[in-house]
Amino acid sequence: MATEALTGGFSDAPRQSARAFRAALEAMARPGSTYVLQEMGDAPAPVSRAAATLLLVLCDPETPLHLAGDYDTEALRGWVTFHTGAPLLSADKAMFVLGSWRALDLSALSLGTAEYPDRSATVIVDGAFNGVDVALRGPGIKDVTQSRLPEVAVFQDNAAQFPLGLDFYFTSGAKLSALPRSTKVTLGGDV
C-alpha cells in the first residue's frame, strides 16, 4: 500500500470526527449556509480537504462509495480503503458519490423507493462553489436564502421528486454547504 494512503486522517479521531460530523449535519439542516471546517482530513489530489473530511465522517464498511471521473484514482482508492473501509462500487450501487459536477452522472444514482426513500445516494460535489445565483426555500430556511449552484433545472427536478431524490454536499477547500432533496430552488432573482 502506498504511503499516501496512510496519511491524511484525523490526529485526534474521536473529537475531530465528532466536530466534523456535527458540521455536516448542520450544513444539511441549514441549506445554503456555508461552513468552514476546522477539523479536516486530507486526501490525495484532486480532493478538497472538506470533501476528504466528509468521506472520513460519512463513509464506513457499510456505505458503498463511487468515485467519479478524475476522482477515481489509485491513490484515492487506497486512501478511502485505509481510512474508511468503504466498498468502492459503481454509481448505481453507491450510497455516497464523490466527483466534480462535470463528472457526475446523476441519472445513474439511486433516488430511493417509495417504501425506502432513505436509500438514495448522497452526492459530494467537489470544487462546486461556482455557478448561478439561486434562491432556496424549504425546511431549515427562514423565508428564503441565497446561494450558488452549478445549475438550476437539475435541482428543481430533484426537489419535485420528494420524498425521493438526491441529497447534495458542495465542497471547496475548507468550505462546505448542503442541499437536501426537500429544498426548492429558483433563479436568484425570483425571490
The CATH homologous superfamily is termed Bacterial phosphonate metabolism protein PhnH
Strand content: 15-25%
Structural class: alpha/beta
Fill in the CATH topology. Rossmann fold
Number of extended strands: 9
In spatial order, strands of the major sheet run 1-8-7-4-3-2
Helical fraction equals 25-40%
- Quaternary structure state of the chains depicted: single chain
Largest sheet: 6 strands, mixed
The N- and C-terminal alpha carbons lie at a distance of 52 Å
What is the number of helices? Answer: 5
pLDDT < 50 stretches = none
Q: How many separate structural domains?
A: 1
CATH class: Alpha Beta
Helix and strand element order = HHEHEHEEEEHEEE
Question: Short summary of the structure?
Answer:
This protein has helices at residues 3-6, 13-29, 49-58, 74-83, 153-160; strands at 35-36, 65-67, 96-99, 122-126, 132-137, 145-149, 167-172, 175-179, 184-187. It has 191 residues and is α/β, with parallel strands linked by helices. β5 (132-137) and β6 (145-149) form a beta hairpin.
Task: Explain what the structure shows.
With 191 residues, the chain is α/β, with parallel strands linked by helices. Helices cover 26% and strands 21% of the residues. It contains 5 helices and 9 strands, in the order ααβαβαββββαβββ. The protein has a 6-stranded mixed β-sheet. It has a 3-stranded antiparallel β-sheet with strand order 6-5-9. A hairpin with a 2-residue loop joins strand 7 (167-172) and strand 8 (175-179). Helix 2 (13-29) packs across helix 3 (49-58). The longest helix has 17 residues, at 13-29. The chain is globular, with a radius of gyration of 16 Å. GO terms for molecular function: lyase activity. InterPro entries: PhnH-like_sp, Phosphonate_metab_PhnH.
